[in-house]
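Bumping with the actual sequence this time:
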Amino acid sequence: MTEQEGAAGGADLFQAMPFGQIVAMLETLDEPPSLGTIDLAELVGRFPELASVAVRDVAIDGPHGDVPGRVYRRPDATGATGAGLVWVHGGAFIGGDLDMPEAHWVSLALAARGTTVVSLDYRKALRGVHYPMPSDDVLAGWCWTAAHAEELGIDPGRLHLGGASAGGNLAAGVTKRLRDGAGPLPVSLVMVYPVVHAVLPPLSAELEATLAADEATTTAATDTFRDMARQYAGSDAALDDPYAFAASGDVAGQPPVLVLDSETDFLRASGEAYAQALAAAGVAVTVVTEPGTSHGHVNGPDMPGALASIERLATWIEEQR
């Protein structure tokens, strides 16, 4: 399977049937879907710099058992002087793994540009798993990385936290937990097409025009968003929890935030609304909409705008000091 096919296959899965039916189907499987894999030899042929990255798996002790992680670092990196990123993949809280392009390729690409990356997996919201377990996994991965920053070649003052889609939610919620004393704050929060609300915010006029969606399509997207949030939350109380959905509660007191959205994406409404709330609360926030992209675009190196987004992420990480 190519990276493009893998990304498309994952998108097809989540569009093929109602969200509840997808959950029921996945709960019959031993493992959640990977949402794509990458052909490393093909990627290195296209991007030779990726061959310079050293990769190793780690098992991080967490409150619910081991948290799978993967460390990406250029072998020529010396000393604890470089930037680092703890990165969390998406998958609607019910799918994805460390091998999907959104995890593996993004980490390789950023490491090749000089950022040490710790990519995290987490427990999926299936078979009775709900918030806070996935959040706890990411918090454990963050704290482990912060504690081992110097041996990983990371300047502790240049360690960032980020994620894509559902991973963006988890990174945002953990950042608020860190703000409130759970551990050291990241130097910045990096979110790519994040979902940080329990209910999809109203679409801006510009986004409505971009999507050109009819009422039925908009209603279906809103319902899927709602069902995804409920599956992660697991209870009505968690839908209002400010750590489960970072747009809830007080959003002040956070480090600088980058929100990188896809252009043609209903979830863009969540990223845009959160950015507005952050700015109103005095948080430094930068919002970028990648032209010509749809949701999940960094899950495929062949997708329009994927490389441009990687460069944006690398530049942001380098500039935050």
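The tokens above came from a reply further down the thread. The chain has one domain: 3-319.
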